[in-house]
Every structure is written in structure tokens, then in C-alpha cells.
UniProtKB/TrEMBL annotation:
Taxonomic source organism: Actinospica durhamensis
Gene3D superfamilies, alphabetized: HAD superfamily/HAD-like (3.40.50.1000)
GO function terms (MF aspect): phosphoglycolate phosphatase activity
Pfam family, one: Hydrolase
The protein's name in its UniProt record: HAD hydrolase-like protein
Keywords: Hydrolase
InterPro entries: HAD-like_hydrolase_sf (IPR050155), HAD-like_sf (IPR036412), HAD_sf (IPR023214)
Any one GO BP annotation for this protein: DNA repair
Length: 232
């Protein structure tokens, strides 16, 4: 049970609050085409790495895929962002996401969205979904010196803006192991996983999730449950 009242909820975008129906992987595939990665086994290896590291900053992923080749990493990242941007109108809000934002804010909990996307892509998503009035803040790796997940920097930045730097007043929700590791590294007392995205229950639990939910719609109730005092 959280002893400090939760004042800030940090939620991931793709896979947690946004349904993109495989568009992240489609955009990575387009980036590999742009980089002329044609050998099937190599593409499979890279795709597996992308799935395993889903939620991390995209430029960080490309640097890992093309170690020592910054030009290829930058070109791959640019191709990914362009390909995803071309498909952004295919994205939609996951069921219950907008209702969860409203429920959290009605209870005095600020809502911040964190993402591994660039600011350009995050803004395109927010604009397409009409979410700007529904949230208090969005944070991308570029706003925290490029250190995306699993580093805690985006959550810490949101806490500095919306929770007086008090990370014990933060709850985190995400669909990947990197979301979970980021929340734990930030010191958030509630770091929940959700099963609508990239990683399964076993992966989220192994990463240290304090709870695993089926849908984002369950998140406000989890925070209410955690805030409820225990009776002797």
C-alpha cells in the first residue's frame, strides 16, 4: 500500500494508452528497408531485439542495432519516425484510456504521458487523438537529454513539474519491461504493467511490476485500492 498520496500518474503511450496494431514494428520494418537490411535472419534478429526493448528510446535502439555506426543509427531512426508518422492516423485510443485520464484528474491526480517516440511523433499522436486537453504533460527522451527508458529521467522530469519532485507520489503504468524498470528506478511505489502491448504477464512480472492489469481502464481503481487504509 502506498503511504504517500498519489498526485501524478505517468502512463506510456503505444501499447498502454494507444492502440497502434503493430505500427511500431511496421515502421521498424520500413526503416530496415531504408537501410537495405535484406538478409532474413538478420532482419529477424533485429526485429526480436526491437520487441525485447520495446518502450525504449528509438534512437537508443537503432544505436544498439548498428553499433559504432552513428550515421546508420540516425538514418534508421529518421526512417522509423517518418514511417510511423505516415501511419499515425491508423492509431486509436485503447478502450478506457480517455476515461482513465478523466477519472484520475477528477481525483486530483495529474496525468503525464511518457514515450520512446520523438517529440514530432508524440505531437502527431496527441493531435490525431485529440488528447492535449485530456492530459497535463507529455515527455519524450529528447526533453531529458536523450535518456529514455529504462532510465527514470522522463518520470523524474514529470515529477519535477507536477509532483514537487516527490517520486513517492507517482504511479506508473506501461506495457513493457523497460516501462517497469524505469518506474522502479524512479522510486515510484506503484509500477504496474498492462497486457495490451508488447510484453506478457511473465515478462512484466519478472521486470518487477507491482501489479499487472488487463487494461488501462483498471488503473484508477488500482490507485484507489492502494490508497485505501488498512483496518485492523
Amino acid at each position: 500500500m502506498s503511504t504517500t498520496p498519489i498526485r501524478l500518474a505517468c502512463l506510456d503511450m503505444a501499447g498502454t494508452t494507444v492502440a497502434d496494431d503493430g505500427l511500431v514494428l511496421a515502421a521498424f520494418s520500413a526503416a530496415l528497408d531504408e537501410l537495405k537490411v535484406a538478409e532474413p535472419a538478420e532482419r529477424e534478429r533485429m526485429t526480436r531485439y526491437v520487441v525485447d526493448t520495446m518502450g525504449e528510446s528509438k534512437i537508443t535502439v537503432f544505436r544498439a542495432l548498428f553499433p559504432g555506426d552513428e550515421q546508420a543509427a540516425q538514418e534508421g531512426n529518421a526512417a522509423f519516425e517518418s514511417a510511423y508518422g505516415e501511419r499515425v492516423e491508423l492509431t486509436r485510443a485503447l478502450p478506457g484510456a480517455e476515461q482513465a485520464f478523466a477519472a484520475l484528474r477528477s481525483e486530483g491526480i495529474a496525468v503525464a504521458l511518457t514515450t520512446g517516440f520523438s517529440r514530432t511523433t508524440a505531437d502527431a499522436l496527441l493531435e490525431h487523438l485529440g488528447w492535449r486537453p485530456l492530459i497535463d504533460l507529455s515527455v519524450t527522451p529528447g526533453e531529458v537529454g536523450g535518456r529514455g527508458r529504462p532510465h527514470p529521467d522522463m518520470i523524474l522530469a514529470a515529477a519535477a513539474r507536477l509532483a514537487d519532485d516527490e517520486t513517492r507520489a507517482v504511479a506508473v503504468l506501461g506495457d513493457t519491461a523497460s516501462d517497469i524498470r524505469s518506474g522502479l528506478a524512479a522510486g515510484a511505489p506503484i509500477v504496474a504493467g498492462v497486457l495490451t502491448g508488447a510484453h506478457d504477464r511473465a515478462t512484466l512480472t519478472a521486470a518487477g511490476a507491482t501489479r499487472v492489469l488487463d487494461h488501462v481502464a483498471e488503473f484508477p481503481a488500482l490507485l484507489r485500492e492502494q490508497a485505501r487504509p488498512l483496518h485492523p
